[in-house]
Amino acid sequence: MRLLIVEDERRLAVSLAKGLRAEGFAVDVVHDGLEGLHRAGEGVYDLVVLDIMLPGMNGYRVCAALRAAGNDVPILMLTAKDGEYDEAEGLDTGADDYLTKPFSYVVLVARVKALLRRRGSAGASPVLRAGGLAIDTAARRVFRDGAEVALTAKEFAVLEQLAVRAGEVVGKPQILEHVWDFAYDGDPNIIEVYISALRRKIGAAAIQTVRGAGYRLVSS
To answer: Could you list the pLDDT tens digit for every one of the 220 residues in the chain?
Structure first.
């Protein structure tokens, strides 16, 4: 899943991004409201972490503009302010949750996961199935023929991208875009390392290589 952080405190933004990437999310970071509105409006994010006090356009206005445009991406607002009025204003503009600085990183991750679970339960089933595999996207657990398979956060993220398109060919650029982030400039062949690890854990036949095109998760 891809997250967008809109936060002008650069050290905080970098710290949050690093931690969330370790949780298996692809994370992009911008530092002003106008850029945040533009990026969030592209519709490629599963959740936006949005500071209120931003240059260019404050978080209230960014949130209101997204909702006015029909964008229902979950929004977790961050603010150094504290008070019922501020929280009410944030929620009135369409934010889904609200966190006051300073906050525990553990709490932020819990809020992010809760919002993503809520979104999943409101839409499609969070359990993806392909052959003997069951991928619980909310709990981030994988089962093969009923037995749980232990995966790292990145392994799960790669498998999830294949599972949402089970039976279809998924190219390396698509996997990089959704599992890593726009800032990744390393070797794209890193994907092969994760595919190999997944094959060892869920069965070599479960993931097919389509030469010159990408990978396909066997759907039946």
So the answer is: 789 999 999 999 999 998 898 888 889 999 999 999 999 998 788 999 999 989 999 999 999 999 999 898 999 998 876 554 455 555 567 888 888 887 888 888 888 988 887 776 555 556 888 888 998 877 778 999 989 999 887 888 889 889 888 888 988 888 887 776 555 666 778 889 999 999 999 999 999 999 989 999 997 6
Residue found by looking up tokens 């097919």 in the block? 208
DSSP state for residue 96 in the 8-state scheme: S
Core vs surface per residue 44-72: b (16+ CB within 10 A) or e = ebbbbbbbbbbeebbbbbbbbbbeeeebe
> pTM for the whole thing?
0.63
- Beta-sheet pairing, 97-100 with 2-6: unpaired
Upstream peptide bond of 188 is cis (omega within 30 degrees of 0): no
Helix axes 105-122, 10-22, angle to 10 degrees: 60
Listed residue (44, 17, 8, 2) closest to 108, CA to CA? 17
